[in-house]
Amino acid sequence: MVLAGDRDRDQAVAALRENFLRGRLTLDELSARTDVVLRARSLKELRGALAGLPRTMPFAHTAVRGGLAVLLTGVWLLFSFSLLVVLGLVALIHGASAPALIAFVLVWLVPTYLLARLWRGVLPRSPS
Predict the structure, then answer these.
(1) pLDDT tens track for 40-68
(2) Mutual angle of helices 59-94 and 98-122, in 10-degree steps
(3) 42 with 80, same domain?
(4) Tell me, what's the pLDDT at 128?
(5) Structurally, how many domains does the chain consist of?
(6) What is the mean pLDDT of residues 70-93?
(7) What is the C-alpha separation between 108 and 94, in angstroms, rounded?
(8) How far apart are CA 118 and CA 78, in angstroms?
(9) Domain check: are 34 and 84 in the same one?
(10) What global pTM score does this model have?
(11) Which pLDDT does position 61 carry in this prediction?
């Protein structure tokens, strides 16, 4: 059993408050779940009090991830443009060969895939 600390309880209460403000909890549910959180001794009890609610991220964390995504997107655009210029020069000088084209595509796909994963983590998901 992993014990819950004061910081864990504070974060759980903040998550409950956020869900209440978004209309996902009634005042009675907020009160009952907050009581459970404040009396919780383990992380399992905290998770039980938050069961059925979507996970919320603190605003600062979301803002930092969004800023990082924008910065990395700019770097990716410069990288893609530079790679396209190099590909054009290689094609002009040496001719376009299948291995060269495959190499360029693979070099471009890796950072593109990683950036797409980052964007999926930053953009809000539509409710299902």
Answers:
(1) 999 999 889 999 888 765 566 667 877 88
(2) 170
(3) no
(4) 45
(5) 2
(6) 91
(7) 20
(8) 18
(9) no
(10) 0.48
(11) 65
